[in-house]
Write a structure and sequence with these properties.
This protein folds into two domains: about 80 residues, no CATH class; about 100 residues, no CATH class. The chain is of the alpha+beta class. Helices cover about 45% and strands about 15% of the residues. The longest helix has 16 residues. It has a two-stranded antiparallel sheet with strand order 1-2. Strands 3-4 form a two-stranded antiparallel sheet. Strands 5-6 form a two-stranded antiparallel ribbon.
């Protein structure tokens, strides 16, 4: 006799997140999933531009000034159907000469999220340059968790980006991995405890 089992609360919650993602606005879907090879990206529609990387943060300033600087619509470039804004004509020229040098890793999404195959979040003012590459994070907590094991987390993020996130639809990928979690998945609460424990050891 077949028995029917009620779905777990976590599975129900995951399905709810899936439907929430599917019901998200079309503008976000368009902004994050350009037709070019650079996708998905942490971009928004703004001031007539369909997809602006990192809400207009100047990606060159991280390298030349060592800080987050907001770009201006006055200085902008399109690369792989994504708009990049800059704080100066000089920064625009640097980007145009070598765009790959300044691109944030993983489409500008939170690097810690990509270590779990989830393209989600990413705040332009929370960042780190490692070995000449720009990594963006979804807040201080996400960055602190990533920094607990930089080589290991970069290895995981690179692996998942190449295997399933790069070229995917951000909404489908995010929804899939919020339900079907990677084997090493840790909740925000679990990561916060690990960060607190690591900081306690240092003090």
């Amino acid at each position: 006799m077949m028995r029917l089992h009620a779905p777990s609360l976590s599975r129900v919650a995951g399905i709810g997140l899936l439907f929430a993602a599917l019901l998200s606005g079309c503008s976000s879907m368009t902004a994050q999933n350009p037709p070019g090879t650079l996708k998905p990206v942490n971009a928004v529609a703004d001031a007539g531009d369909d997809r602006v990387m990192l809400k207009g943060a100047d990606v060159v300033a991280y390298f030349t000034q060592g800080k987050y600087v907001q770009g201006s619509p006055q200085y902008r470039s399109r690369y792989q159907d994504v708009t990049f804004r800059f704080a100066s004509a000089e920064h625009k020229a640097l980007f145009d000469a070598a765009p790959q040098k300044y691109l944030p890793q993983y489409g500008g999404y939170c690097a810690n999220g990509i270590a779990y195959a989830i393209p989600w979040g990413g705040d332009a003012d929370t960042w780190r340059i490692v070995d000449g590459k720009l990594y963006i994070f979804g807040g201080q907590g996400s960055m602190d968790a990533f920094l607990l094991d930089v080589p290991g987390n970069i290895k995981l993020a690179d692996q998942y980006w190449k295997a399933e996130v790069d070229g995917s639809n951000s909404f489908w990928q995010r929804s899939k991995r919020l339900v079907l979690r990677v084997p090493h998945y840790k909740s925000g609460e679990e990561l916060a405890k690990e960060v607190a424990a690591a900081q306690a050891k240092k003090s």
